[in-house]
Structure formats: structure tokens, C-alpha cells
Amino acid sequence: MTDEPTERPPMRSKGTLVTDEMLARLAEKAEAGFDLDRLRPRPPGRPRIGSSPAESLSVRFPPEMRHQLHERAEAEHVSEADIIRQAVAEHLTRTA
Prior knowledge:
mainly alpha, 2 strands
């Protein structure tokens, strides 16, 4: 087993690349404190996708395809999951 760190794709928030500068601004804002009266309560769990709670599906990709997926998502400023959902939806709506 190796102790070398594995390279991960950069972090994203709603399709936007999370930069060191963004993290620094958020940390400054948090350290200054939040007006708790202005914070909106959020419903528990993830937001719905479609008519009911979405289900997770694990899929394996060859490294080359995963790289292409990452590059496309970055270029379009969307998540990799959005690209995958769109591709599956297009495939399922095609007539045989």
C-alpha cells in the first residue's frame, strides 16, 4: 500500500469551482458572525429532483471517460451528475 495522496477533482459548489480566495472570503464572513434572525431554515435532506426524492446509483467509468466528463462539466459550469442525468435522459427518449 502506498502513502501517496490520490488526486481528486477540484471541489465545486453548484457547478462553480471552489477557489482558495472563495474559501478565505467565506471564512472571514463566518468569523465575523452571522445574523441568526436572517438565516432561513432549510428542509432536511437533499432537494428533490423530479416528483419524489432521487435515488443514488453508483457507476464506474474508465479514467479517460471520467476525465472527459470532468472537462465537459467544467466547460459548461455544471456538475458531472447533471451531465450524466442529461445523457441518460436523452438516451431514454430516443426511439428504437
